[in-house]
Amino acid sequence: MLPARVESLSGLSAIPPEYVRPADERADLGDAFDQLAAADHHTAPRRIPVVDISPFLLPNQQHKQQECLEAVRAAASDWGVMHIAGHGIPGELMDSLRAAGSGFFALPIDAKEAYANDPAAGRLQGYGSRLATNASGQREWEDYLFHLLHPDHLADHSLWPAHPPGYVAATREFGRRIREVASALLAILSVGLLGPATNTRLEEELTAKGEEDLLLQLKINYYPRCPQPELAVGVEAHTDVSALSFILHNGVPGLQVRHDGRWVTARDEPGTIVVHVGDALEILSNGRYTSVLHRGLVNRDAVRVSWVVFCEPPPEAVLLRPLPELVTPDSPARFTPRTFRQHLDRKLFKKQQPPAAPDDDKQQQQQQDGIAAAS
């Protein structure tokens, strides 16, 4: 039998067969450091856009707002991902968050098991490892810690690690600050879709006109050293179900996004936060903003850790559907209405839903399409 945690496999000379990806997916897998080095030697290396959003957060910066707006809109439309600078979260707080999460994963496995989840019993929050949820039946080279981050009064703090001692304070404060950044970015994206004086529209749609709050879910991904990175992935190709996802990491490469038929490896852009457009925002924008297909590579020599905050609408209170202003005879609705829970059930648990609009199946098939295109 395999050990329960991927961490305990990292000292092997070869990975167990359950972690070997299908042959048609392995064509462009490899060590994340090698992939980034190869990209640097390309004649025209692609880079995920870096956008400074401080003109919308600082006083006396109105003259720079239009340029910022255009940059955010272009990144969300063309890439579905961007690095944001000027977000206002202190570097010291981000460092504290990294230290707290890394400190938890530095604990012995037995100590981490005190926070173990049980997906089979419906307990998704806690410490766990990625089980096979794909057609191939293969597993991913990843352990993780997952729990609700915001609103704080809904969080089950018994699932938040007591060690290291700074975990709760740093994580809670980071959640508060990310919630503010989410509002700012949604305001920019709203204006980019519908024009001036619409800066609250997307957040209103995602929070039932302010009657409920956005849910922030934190997932700390731990990718141990892998003896055969050309055969494995940390996380397979997928799009996020969220509206937005915010990502910090420990400086070790691994994130790849799909752009114009190629995988692009994210670089370390110090001080920035990576932001993904997710399915919920793609639905509201009627496809004008792109839910980015992405995956995680692993490497031989370094542990990669990433902190992902998924910004989600309340599961039942919000009906996700294209904004009426974006639906015209020339641009019909590309997605059928559904609650966030219905979207989760359909995408992740394959439960039956009403007949789909033309683009609905895109989000279910992006993983397979991305793998096929990569090969």
UniProtKB/TrEMBL annotation:
UniProt keyword terms in alphabetical order: Dioxygenase, Flavonoid biosynthesis, Iron, Metal-binding, Oxidoreductase, Vitamin C
Domain of life of the source: Eukaryota
Tell me which SUPFAM superfamilies the record gives: Clavaminate synthase-like (SSF51197)
Q: Does the keyword Iron apply?
A: yes
InterPro entries (UniProt xref)? DIOX_N (IPR026992), IPNS-like_FE2OG_OXY (IPR044861), IPNS-like_sf (IPR027443), Iron_ascorbate_oxido_reductase (IPR050231), Oxoglu/Fe-dep_dioxygenase_dom (IPR005123)
Listed Pfam families: 2OG-FeII_Oxy, DIOX_N
Known PROSITE patterns for this protein?
A: FE2OG_OXY
What ranges does the record give for the region Disordered, renumbered to this chain? Answer: 344-375
- Which EC numbers characterise this protein's activity in its record? 1.14.20.4
Pathway given for this chain reads: Pigment biosynthesis; anthocyanin biosynthesis
Residues of the Fe2OG dioxygenase domain: 214-313
Per UniProt, the enzyme's principal EC class comes to oxidoreductase
Family as reported in the entry's similarity comment: Belongs to the iron/ascorbate-dependent oxidoreductase family.
Specify the protein name: anthocyanidin synthase
According to its UniProt entry, this protein's organism is: Digitaria exilis
